[in-house]
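Cont'd.
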Amino acid sequence: MGPGATPEAIEREAPRPPDALAGLLGADLDAVDAIIHQRLSSSVTLIPDLAAYLIDAGGKRVRPMITLAAAHALGGANDATRMLAAAVEFIHTATLLHDDVVDESSLRRGRVSAHRVWGNSASVLVGDFLFARSFTLMVDADDLAVLAVLSNASSTIAEGEVLQLSSANDASASLDHYMRIISAKTAALFAAAARVGAMSTKCTPAEADAFETYGRNLGLAFQLVDDALDYGGASAVMGKNLGDDFREGKITLPVILARETGDDEERAFWARVMGGGEHRPADFEHALAILRKRNSITRTLDFARVYANAARDALGAMPDTIWRTTLVELVDFVVDRAH
Amino acid sequence: MGPGATPEAIEREAPRPPDALAGLLGADLDAVDAIIHQRLSSSVTLIPDLAAYLIDAGGKRVRPMITLAAAHALGGANDATRMLAAAVEFIHTATLLHDDVVDESSLRRGRVSAHRVWGNSASVLVGDFLFARSFTLMVDADDLAVLAVLSNASSTIAEGEVLQLSSANDASASLDHYMRIISAKTAALFAAAARVGAMSTKCTPAEADAFETYGRNLGLAFQLVDDALDYGGASAVMGKNLGDDFREGKITLPVILARETGDDEERAFWARVMGGGEHRPADFEHALAILRKRNSITRTLDFARVYANAARDALGAMPDTIWRTTLVELVDFVVDRAH
């Protein structure tokens, strides 16, 4: 990965991630893709058109890969695992469609956002369709316990999104508040993806808990790295897709850390630029300079590393297989993106 | 109900419908309301604030009443019935929140729409939350067969909404197309509400089918009457809440029937006013005059009566109880709203 590459740029490099996990999962991932496209079908053609536009744009399928690999690590993926992996991707895609409407984002996975092509209304309603279909998939996977996990994750995601929305432009947001948001909006689905993969093998409660812990910590590391990448990552090289959070007034950890250790002038700067008013041309570069001075990208990535370590540790008691090794490598990949 | 009252005006008259069904269901409805408010709770206070604003605005709870009454008609409502009734109301409320964003409606149940108070983003995300929570409620009701019915209904509703969206402003929409939209966006949830109420009693497949048929036909009659009421109903008295469909370019049965039997001048009028362009001040009154001339409100209500009869007939083989009688009276109430 090039220095300073944004998540979008990384996702665009290849339609399928070039890492070991995707290679190992080959046939399973193809099966999940087949389920996804089959369950997208509707006589209302706008639905598969819009949904496939986003789904086929080259997302890395990180979440369904976690579901599949968790099952393999505990004995093997089955039909239920593959349906649950597809359900997880449906929930994720529905969330992306609604997020882009909420954030008024113009780009997603290197393409013009769906709502800019078909309008906000279509994105909202097709998101609803995907969300409903994800539950039909879960019903077909035939396990109420798994449905409980994913329906709880879904309401937690919505809570996280609302929390983020209601605290946008509040430059005084705390570290705790930020962690609460990313636990809900990102880590909850990673945790559920791993847990339901494990559960699909009829594993022990301790094994399900271990994979949930893996997923939750991986999700936290993933979001922390994403938020560091929005300011250029460790190298802080300017790139064309940087600064989305900055422009939208989303207060993420780099800003929180810089603000906490900043002087009065810097705090006034953050209050102005994150407070929702008009930006001046040099604001973003000035923000990057403060982040460098306060070392806050590095410190954000230190947080990511702590959660990454917790994710690795969670799998310590799991059987020593190629799947465990590869799930650990996925953690490294997530953190290394920022360097 | 006063002549020409709109659905909003009817819903506003009393916080609890004054009909026999609500009276019979008293304690059950209170229990459902308690479940609804308990499941709305979230530490993210914007969620219960926004959701309760809509839920407590005096909706008639028609769908959960159908769920409860179907169960009583087959032996009695239980905890699962009440949870499913709450889940049905959650799905309905989520749909209303997203609908109001899609339609840019400014009024709902006689109040300023939630999205006008809290913004589109909050309405989208709180709708997602309610939708997710509806599935948690279904999981607690502990029956996968019921989950299948409601998840299928949810994706059908979204399909109906997308279909309506993609054919808005198409003045040449056919009767078939219209019926397909209202079957999906309205009748699917009425059908599911009745079916899952029946299923919660562990009824026979024939009984579940009978209640589903009842719900579907009642839903169709309900929507047809709503669409007639948007043009003033049988009396065609002008009221301040009329004409939402007309202004939004939603092609409903009154217009389809008028257009089919209209002359060239009238067809040109419908093409212009439903086609999405600017309206002239006298357009709506001219539309009402054509609808009167072509008798299309009456003919729309004739359709409603056919479906209402089918709803009544569906319960013909059910046990002769006060519940069956009252469910039949609910059909009469739905149709009589328009007179």
